[in-house]
Amino acid sequence: MMRGHDDWALSDWSFQQSVPQAVPLAVWYPAQEGLVLLSALPAIHTADTLRSGSYEDRAAGRLRSAGSRGGEEEGSAMTHLQAGLSPETLEKARLELNENPDTLHQDIQEVRDMVITRPDIGFLRTDDAFILRFLRARKFQHFEAFRLLAQYFEYRQQNLDMFKSFKATDPGIKQALKDGFPGGLANLDHYGRKILVLFAANWDQSRYTLVDILRAILLSLEAMIEDPELQVNGFVLIIDWSNFTFKQASKLTPSMLRLAIEGLQDSFPARFGGIHFVNQPWYIHALYTVIRPFLKEKTRKRIFLHGNNLNSLHQLIHPEILPSEFGGMLPPYDMGTWARTLLDHEYDDDSECNADSYNAPAKDIEKDLSPKSMKRSQSVVDPGVLKRMDKNEEENMQPLLSLD
Fold this sequence. Notes:
404 residues
């Protein structure tokens, strides 16, 4: 957990205001006895290894292209860094995120230069394309971008078990993906944002944990954030709480919610434009009231509790791009779409951190994720079939509103 602060807030880190323009970058690796210094590298003032292409491209082959080095002109590097952005998105990045192609290289280097102020953290990536995600997520405020970058790696460093076998073929992650944790709609909204969907009642407690669901969501975001358009435009999340039982809700303990908030709100370079609750029961509303003070003000303003009023949802997300589960005009959502994208290509977060490979036969993956084997959503519009709980399932529940 992040530092264990009672108020869930992360402390500010102080450092010298003037950092030399050329400083050695210490690369640390977490070990049982502490942090091990792997190497010290001179600061790089040109673009490092870039990752190009959309998240589908990376899932298909994890495409990587070499950035400008040595004698290449800075303008060429900036062209590569902003490749994949439409003219409209480039303008949006300029107006809303303060992204300036003329100073982009300098902005990235200023964040990179701050790395030496946190020798306690293993910054496993500091290349240009990676740092650019954090600048976009924090509207090119250098210190805020670095703070997010540090929290990103600190979260992983302090929750090592979550990121062991951090790949789509991990059994827990795979089962969560198959049940639609998360799902992604084919169409973007009118702001160019990716629409993620969760059908909460699909959670099968006997097969995987809430931590596995969080891991599946984080892994999916890692894949999707490869798309530079989504780095700028961001995401929207719809959670359908139809048929989500009190028994399931009792597992949403403060410690679990804290882990999720730290991982998604405080430690990941994604811009969430809205989080929509639909068909939420009273106990979910009560739980939200409890955790609301621990959310950032910006996050609180972007959470909408629609209940059974899908018309209010349609005012924010057009029904033309929504499946029938949300009162939309499209067919029911295929739960296996996003799972197949990741599993067909054996996506993992980073091959350097996941050396072991999973070589499941393609026919087994296809059979396992065929539409007939996928669980259907359980919304109020399309209820599907409720799972039958095992009567002998052992309960080790914590009261819903208890505090750790």
